[in-house]
């Protein structure tokens, strides 16, 4: 299956570049060390570098932010094609909704996805086991057939486990986890939803966080970052996969996703028409405070 | 926690209702716990969750966000946004270990001097047994 | 040369812990019970915590010389009285099982921070206070390329004591007087067994001479290379020779009419957009292409020219840590090829 997807991806990329439809195809390639990494294809002849398998976990939508402005003043913003899994398309949907990306500047090569595996194993990532969206909600071209995969039900087990602890235990847990952080911002940089020109963590006036690489700064950054993604995080796990210190960041995002669903009945990136929950309200709603 | 612990509470009060409500409490000579340190903001919708977390990190034991009653916002809808924001923030802070009882969002109108005193007293009593908040703060070697 | 067993080494470490902070590779559990671990140099309370068999720690040990955050000094003003407290670090440290590449990284930092005026007093003091106990690698690990850059898996040039794992224990080689002094109390027997020679086979990575880099500065290659860069700080923070920092004063009230000022220094990264921003908002390195290129030029062109040291020791951490697979050895290979092509083209024109 992945092989036929790979062939189709290469063909499509070559075509798009030959016809001049796009200036670049963003996809995946294999590094000389054998690991899959993002690839940027500019020439039709390079299209054969593209690969597809169950380790293509990067969310490539993050690179669209680099291509929002023209390379030189007065020029057009070049159109790019991007290989997108269903979860990646939900992230793109959030960006479209927030007016970050012009739809006509992106050619979405949607891929029917059977799920991504945990690093170095053949075991599906937990989020992929739960995923019910095997085909992207929109695309300009679709590659692959919808795979026959039975999704397991979302039970929020990881979140519930932590909720079951006492507040003191939870604090101890997060103190331990946050303390490992080195403030490298790999989580933020890998996240398509984190595109602020200046992050509150690096803002100088007012100085919310400061320069120290110590527990208060680390905790502040992670808590606020997760909160800024409330109703926007599509659970692509790019943050957690990028984290060199193995901080379970998805737990923060999933806690918020769980509450957003319970409070507002909303799932991020699923529907381009509904505004994200913290950008809207209902006058008559009863919310537990 | 010792009975004589006096929690430090930061209160973000909206200019149009709650701050005026607190004024009313004062001019009406209604006593309320001195634990609250009031910061006047234009609207409860102005209270960025950053403010709340920053207050906790700078030594607050509890944080209150008080605004106009839903429907009465001076800017029409600021408090509706605040309501959503803090309904979520409440649960999220609890998840990272800052007990939900340390955060309060409520509505006090300019005429509710009695209610302001009551809300502050209630919240102070709620935070007192939790003891001082010193999590996620600096630990110097 | 002495021969000792792991048990005797452990007993010696435990005794050392009584009087010095012992920093050693330690397994750190991540994510509660999720089963993932990280290996980090950390202060240990018992030799039982020390991991003797390992490849490479996730972070270099530079943080014990140039901490990720440190207080440079404190000023307190109360009414008319002003006090300045500048405490240089006094703790005696023993860094156990440092790899030759990381030790070499410290030599690079010495060139930049101590041998070059003005010297960094805090770093220099920590260097003086620390004894390095090296542990030779039997061969190069995945991602390693120390041999391509002038190092070796059993290079003992930059440590005070060198350990070599052999059958039945460790060979202990005293390199410096500081090392000899530290070894007092180690139960070991003299031996004439020679130190084992590590397998030096590794990837052949061409490293372009410092003076050849400027000609490549404006090549399109840098833009293409940085396409996938996320501009995170991971590579610079794990690197044994990246040493950029930021300094800031923090002020708070201290009693009635009092003021307390703390000058903090923290790691900073040239990968950050704000790193090079200057007053008025101008940024001479506005894009990630400028920043990634600068990082490599710093390592292979600026540092060698200004301080006489290539600021890379081939530890491979930046390769292992990069979330998007940017590989410094691949870059070096491509840059060398590019330089050759340009030279070829130049000849053609001539």
Notes on the structure:
- The complex is a heterotrimer of chains A (289), B (141) and C (350).
- With 289 residues, chain A is α/β, with parallel strands linked by helices.
- Chain A has helices at 2-18, 86-97, 126-130, 157-163, 167-179, 186-190, 215-228, 238-242, 249-264, and strands at 24-30, 36-41, 80-84, 106-111, 141-143.
- Chain A folds into 2 domains: 2-143, no CATH class; 157-279, no CATH class.
- Chain A is built from 9 helices and 5 strands, in the order αβββαβαβαααααα.
- Chain A has a 5-stranded mixed sheet with strand order 2-1-3-4-5.
- In chain A, α5 crosses α7 (215-228).
- The longest helix of chain A has 17 residues, at 2-18.
- With 141 residues, chain B is an alpha/beta fold.
- Chain B has one domain.
- Chain B is built from 4 helices and 4 strands.
- In chain B, α3 links the parallel β3 (62-67) and β4.
- The model of chain B has no long low-confidence stretch (mean pLDDT 95).
- In chain C, the strands form 2 sheets. In chain C, strands 3-2-6-7-8-9-1-10 form an 8-stranded mixed sheet. In chain C, strands 5-4-12-11 form a 4-stranded antiparallel sheet, with no helix packed on it.
- By secondary structure, chain C is an alpha+beta fold.
- Chain C has 9 helices and 12 strands.
- Chain C has one domain (2-193, 204-349).
- The chains are: A alpha/beta (289), B alpha/beta (141), C alpha+beta (350).
- Chains in contact: A-B, A-C.
- Chains A and C meet through β2 and α6 of A and α6, β11 and β12 of C.
In short:
The complex is a heterotrimer of chains A (289), B (141) and C (350). Chain A has helices spanning 2-18, 86-97, 126-130, 157-163, 167-179, 186-190, 215-228, 238-242, 249-264, and strands spanning 24-30, 36-41, 80-84, 106-111, 141-143.
């Amino acid at each position: 299956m992945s092989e036929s997807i790979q062939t189709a991806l290469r063909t499509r990329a070559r075509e798009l570049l030959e016809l001049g439809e796009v200036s670049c195809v963003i996809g995946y390639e294999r590094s000389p060390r054998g690991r899959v990494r993002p690839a940027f294809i500019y020439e039709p002849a390079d299209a054969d570098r593209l690969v597809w398998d169950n380790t293509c976990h990067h969310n490539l939508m993050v690179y669209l932010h680099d291509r929002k402005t023209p390379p030189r003043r007065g020029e057009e913003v070049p159109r790019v094609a991007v290989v997108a899994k269903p979860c990646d398309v939900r992230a793109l949907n959030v960006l479209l909704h927030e007016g970050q990306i012009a739809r006509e500047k992106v050619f979405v090569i949607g891929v029917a996805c059977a799920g991504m595996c945990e690093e170095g194993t053949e075991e599906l990532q937990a989020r992929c086991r739960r995923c019910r969206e095997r085909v992207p909600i929109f695309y300009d071209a679709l590659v692959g057939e919808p795979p026959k995969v039975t999704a397991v039900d979302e039970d929020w087990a990881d979140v519930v486990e932590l909720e079951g602890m006492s507040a003191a235990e939870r604090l101890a847990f997060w103190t331990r986890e946050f303390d490992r952080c080195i403030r490298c911002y790999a989580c933020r940089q890998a996240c398509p939803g984190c595109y602020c020109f200046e992050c509150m963590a690096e803002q100088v006036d007012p100085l919310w966080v400061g320069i120290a690489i110590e527990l208060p700064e680390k905790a502040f950054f992670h808590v606020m970052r997760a909160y800024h993604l409330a109703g926007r995080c599509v659970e692509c796990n790019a943050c957690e996969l990028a984290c060199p210190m193995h901080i379970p960041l998805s737990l923060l995002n999933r806690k918020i996703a769980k509450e957003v669903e319970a409070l507002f009945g909303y799932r991020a990136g699923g529907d381009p028409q509904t505004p994200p929950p913290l950008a809207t309200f209902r006058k008559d709603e009863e919310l537990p405070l | 926690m010792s009975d004589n612990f006096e929690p430090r509470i930061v209160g973000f009060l909206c200019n149009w209702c709650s701050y005026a409500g607190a004024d009313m409490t004062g001019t009406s000579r209604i006593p309320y716990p001195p634990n609250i340190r009031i910061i006047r903001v234009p609207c409860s919708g102005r209270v960025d969750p950053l403010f709340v977390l920053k207050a906790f990190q700078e030594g607050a034991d509890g944080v209150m966000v008080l605004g106009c009653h839903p429907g009465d916002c001076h800017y029409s809808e600021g408090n509706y946004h605040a309501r959503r924001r803090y309904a979520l923030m409440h649960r999220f802070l609890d998840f990272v270990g800052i007990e939900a009882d340390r955060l309060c969002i409520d509505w006090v109108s300019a005429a509710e001097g009695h209610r302001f005193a009551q809300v502050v007293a209630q919240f102070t009593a709620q935070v007192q047994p939790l003891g001082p908040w010193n999590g996620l703060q600096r630990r110097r070697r | 040369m002495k021969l000792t067993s792991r048990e005797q080494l452990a007993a010696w470490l435990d005794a050392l812990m009584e009087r010095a902070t012992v920093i050693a590779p330690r397994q750190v559990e991540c994510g509660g019970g999720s089963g993932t671990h990280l290996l980090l140099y950390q202060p240990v309370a018992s030799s039982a915590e020390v991991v003797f068999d390992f490849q490479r720690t996730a972070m270099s040990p530079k943080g014990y010389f140039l901490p990720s955050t440190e207080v440079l000094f404190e000023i307190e003003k109360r009414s008319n009285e002003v006090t300045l407290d500048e405490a240089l670090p006094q703790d005696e440290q023993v860094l156990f099982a440092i790899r030759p590449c990381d030790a070499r990284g410290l030599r690079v930092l010495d060139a930049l921070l101590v041998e070059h005026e003005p010297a960094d007093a805090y770093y220099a003091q920590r260097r003086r206070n620390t004894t390095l106990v090296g542990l030779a690698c039997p061969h190069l690990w995945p991602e390693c390329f120390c041999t391509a850059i002038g190092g070796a898996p059993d290079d003992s040039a930059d440590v005070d004591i060198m350990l070599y794992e052999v059958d039945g224990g460790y060979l202990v080689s005293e390199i410096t007087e500081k090392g000899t002094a530290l070894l007092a109390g180690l139960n070991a027997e003299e031996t004439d067994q020679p130190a084992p020679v590590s397998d030096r086979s590794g990837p052949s990575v061409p490293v372009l001479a410092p003076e050849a880099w400027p000609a490549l500065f404006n090549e399109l290659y840098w833009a293409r290379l940085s396409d996938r860069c996320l501009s995170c700080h991971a590579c610079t923070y794990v690197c044994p020779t990246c040493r950029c920092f930021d300094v800031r004063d923090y002020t708070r009230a201290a009693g009635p009419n009092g003021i307390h000022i703390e000058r903090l220094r923290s790691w900073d990264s040239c990968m950050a957009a704000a790193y090079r921003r200057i007053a008025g908002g101008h940024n001479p390195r506005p894009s990630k292409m400028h920043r990634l290129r600068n990082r490599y030029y710093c390592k292979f062109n600026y540092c060698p020219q200004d301080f006489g040291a290539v600021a890379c020791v081939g530890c491979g951490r930046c390769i292992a840590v990069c979330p998007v697979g940017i590989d410094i050895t691949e870059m070096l290979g491509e840059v060398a090829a590019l330089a050759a092509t340009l030279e070829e083209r130049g000849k053609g024109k001539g």
